[in-house]
From TrEMBL:
<dbReference type="InterPro" id="IPR026935">
    <property type="entry name" value="BtrH_N"/>
</dbReference>
<dbReference type="Pfam" id="PF16169">
    <property type="entry name" value="DUF4872"/>
</dbReference>
<feature type="domain" description="Butirosin biosynthesis protein H N-terminal">
    <location>
        <begin position="14"/>
        <end position="140"/>
    </location>
</feature>
<dbReference type="Pfam" id="PF14399">
    <property type="entry name" value="BtrH_N"/>
</dbReference>
<feature type="domain" description="DUF4872">
    <location>
        <begin position="163"/>
        <end position="328"/>
    </location>
</feature>
<protein>
    <submittedName>
        <fullName>DUF4872 domain-containing protein</fullName>
    </submittedName>
</protein>
<dbReference type="InterPro" id="IPR032369">
    <property type="entry name" value="DUF4872"/>
</dbReference>
Length: 339
């Protein structure tokens, strides 16, 4: 197998942030998972209509995190999507031949190494680090070990249309250099998170779909929760929501990871230390919501009061996040307008 030597695979809680961490480590930039998440502009909240269902699902981190990280730091890179499989295959294997790891954007439900079917909105991010004629080796930051999959599995996972459009999408560093000031990039990433959550239309990027985003989407989700007892099978959206909060076992809609980012990156940007502490408290509230949702399918019949309680918890979280992101935006100079 043609494989990149010197690539150190490490695992963490967020697939994209760990892909960035591992690639950054390979090029000698030494960013933590939390720093990558913060510079990339996490977290998020995006609602998506579930295909052929009368309920919604969501993701708690942005679809553009990886691209934003490289753009913000001014790292020269190539981003491609839309090629047919053979063209994309020739492209990524050529980069491996040059010892450059390739960030892939995939459908997680097509990856056969997960013990349970993952239930998060694509893209799932992994790094291609090796290949031979009929297999590839991936560094998936949500898994403890490197994963080997077949070429045909990669072909299936590289295309999806259920929630967002994926077509053989990848990103690769073309020159190992950072051309933007790191403190400026950090401040921009943190400021964009505040902008996005408070006023998602002020952010040029989007979540690749027509769904609501930011705090308005989080408040809408609370409203949906209150109506779910009327669904024919309320257990299915409840399980999907719980898994979305607990994506990859992080357990707190990535708010704990973002609290770490605020603590680490806030030292560079002179943020008030209590922002990280407040976000850590919000992460615990998200964990409580996940635990509450886990109890609902265990009941024989849907109980509206349980859904109402969960909806109230989410509404309270929206209020607390609004306060945190407003203060974050104020400290970093966000006054409205396009970011």
């Amino acid at each position: 197998m043609e494989i990149i030597e010197g690539y150190d695979h490490q695992s963490g809680g967020h697939c994209g942030a760990m892909a960035l961490r591992n690639v950054a480590e390979y090029y000698g930039w030494n960013y933590s998972e939390a720093a990558c998440f913060g510079i990339g502009g996490g977290p998020a909240f995006v609602l998506y209509e579930y295909p052929d269902e009368s309920w919604v699902t969501f993701r708690a981190s942005p679809t553009w995190l990886e691209r934003a990280f490289f753009e913000r730091l001014g790292i020269p890179h190539s981003y491609r999507r839309g090629d047919d499989f053979e063209t994309a295959w020739d492209g990524v294997t050529g980069h491996i031949d040059e010892d450059d790891p390739v960030v892939l954007f995939l459908d997680p439900t097509s990856l056969d190494y997960f013990s349970e079917e993952p239930d998060h909105v694509p893209p799932h991010v992994a790094v291609l680090i090796g290949y031979e004629d009929e297999t590839v080796q991936l560094s998936d930051g949500t898994m403890e070990n490197r994963q080997t999959i077949s070429r045909s599995t990669l072909a299936d996972a590289w295309v999806d249309e259920r929630f967002v459009s994926l077509q053989n999408e990848y990103l690769v560093v073309t020159r190992a250099a950072r051309t933007e000031d790191e403190t400026d990039a950090t401040a921009a990433g943190l400021r964009q998170a505040a902008t996005y959550m408070l006023n998602p239309l002020d952010v040029k990027r989007d979540a690749r779909g027509p769904g609501e985003e930011g705090l308005p989407a989080l408040r809408s989700f609370a409203d949906y929760l209150g109506r779910w007892p009327d669904l024919p099978d309320a257990d299915r959206p409840v399980r999907a929501a719980r898994r979305a909060i607990d994506e990859h076992g992080e357990g707190a809609a990535f708010r704990s990871l973002y609290a770490e980012a605020l603590g680490e990156l806030g030292q560079q940007t002179d943020l008030t230390p209590d922002l990280a502490d407040r976000m850590q408290l919000v992460s615990r509230e998200w964990q409580t919501v996940a635990e509450h949702l886990a109890e609902i399918p265990e009941r024989d019949e849907p109980q509206p009061e349980l859904f109402a309680e969960a909806a109230s918890m989410v509404s309270d979280i929206a209020d607390r996040e609004e306060s945190i992101f407003a203060d974050l935006g104020d400290e970093l100079g966000y006054r409205g307008g396009r970011e």
